[in-house]
Amino acid sequence: MTPDPVQNVAIVAIGRNEGERLKGCLRAAVALAQTVVYVDSGSSDGSAGFARSLGCHVVEMQPPFSAARARNLGFATAISLLPAAEFLQFVDGDCTLADGWLQQGMSAFRERADAGIVCGHVREIHPEASVYNRLFDLEWRQQPGTLSACGGIFMMRPQVFRALGGFRPEVIAAEDNEFCVRLRQTGRKIYLLDTPMVLHDAAMHSFHQWWRRARRTGHAYAQVAALHGKSQERYYVRESRRVWVWAIAIPFFALALAPFTRGISLLLLLLYPIQFGWIVRRSIKRGWPLGHASIYAFFTVLTKFPALEGMLAYYWRRMRGKTITIMEHKES
Fold first, then answer.
1. Which of 6, 221, 223, 286 is 20 to 30 A away from residue 306, measured at CA?
2. Contacts with 280 (C-beta within 8 Å, 6 or more apart), sequence order
3. How far apart are the C-alpha atoms of 17 and 57, rounded to whole Å?
4. How far apart are CA 266 and CA 254, in angstroms?
5. Beta bridge partners of 122
6. Do residues 307 and 218 make contact, with C-beta atoms less than 8 angstroms apart?
């Protein structure tokens, strides 16, 4: 039987064409909390109907779609259903909450007066399914303690979320990072507990999907840097500059100067394998096997190029005054 304190937690799940992943997500959620809200972003796979069949409160969002807007709508609905909610747990439709997580998250808040967000470990459910799933699993690995930012799956108090005004609806990627910047500016901290929070199912099996995800990352760098790049910590400015250097400056000078340097400038391209080797060495020091370290290093080096495409897409959209909407990389 679920302990009584969990009645004071509202779970907000968001999704779009997550298929079987969503079914696992919502089945776990309704078993853990009395109030579960599912926000659907225009799914065509019957997600909303399935959620209703489990007794979830369903919000079918209208365009433009974004994770930020979906979570904000979910929050408003959850609080209207459970005004006395002490805690709010966000979860994505491709994740399954771990047994016991809600109790551990609540306990952490009660032990830490300065906590603004509490989260736990995210683990990939099928890291062996593809090299991209393995990459996800490696990226999830972080040391417990205080963080500067976390993903959009976390627990927090409703009054803190409301005081911050929720997520910025116009931020379509890294809306969670942007939210964390504003949270930390209030003096509150983000804690990563050394305990499982969710199992994630990336279900990524193609280079095209990976490229689109990396492109979305670049878009996030540009948009969040535009919002917080002039703050004291200059958030995402360094990451944006790295993209410009590695994806444009180095190849441009290597090729443009080649006719004038008898090809010597092409030696600049050796910086890529050097960076690869440096990342591999650093990853092995973390205890990763050589194979895992090599996968992580290869895609870390390569990601600068799709990230550049995403950054340019953001600047182009902003210049044209075009509404920025969801950028997807997965298939249902």
1. 286
2. 290, 293, 294, 297
3. 17
4. 5
5. 198
6. yes
In DSSP notation, 231-255 reads: STT-TTHHHHHHHHIIIIIHHHHHH
What residues pair up with 145 in beta bridges, in sequence order?
192
How is residue 62 annotated by DSSP? P
In a 13 Å sphere around the CA of 141, the CA atoms on its Cβ side amount to 12
Report pLDDT digits (tens) over 127-175.
999 999 999 999 998 899 999 999 999 999 999 999 999 999 888 888 9
C-alpha distances out from residue 94 to 13, 91, 149, 178, Å: 9, 8, 20, 22
Could you tell me the pLDDT band of residue 2, with boundaries at 50, 70 and 90? Answer: very low
pLDDT at 302: 97
Mean pLDDT of 1-24: 80
How many alpha carbons fall within 13 Å on the CB side of residue 17? 10
Q: What's this model's pTM, rounded to 2 decimal places?
A: 0.88
Extract the runs of DSSP E, i.e. beta strands, from 30-114. Answer: 35-40, 57-60, 87-92, 95-97
Q: Which of 133, 137, 139 is nearest to 205 (CA)?
A: 133
Where are the domains positioned within the chain?
A: 4-203, 218-320
What local confidence, expressed as pLDDT, does residue 130 receive? 94
Amino acid at 263: G
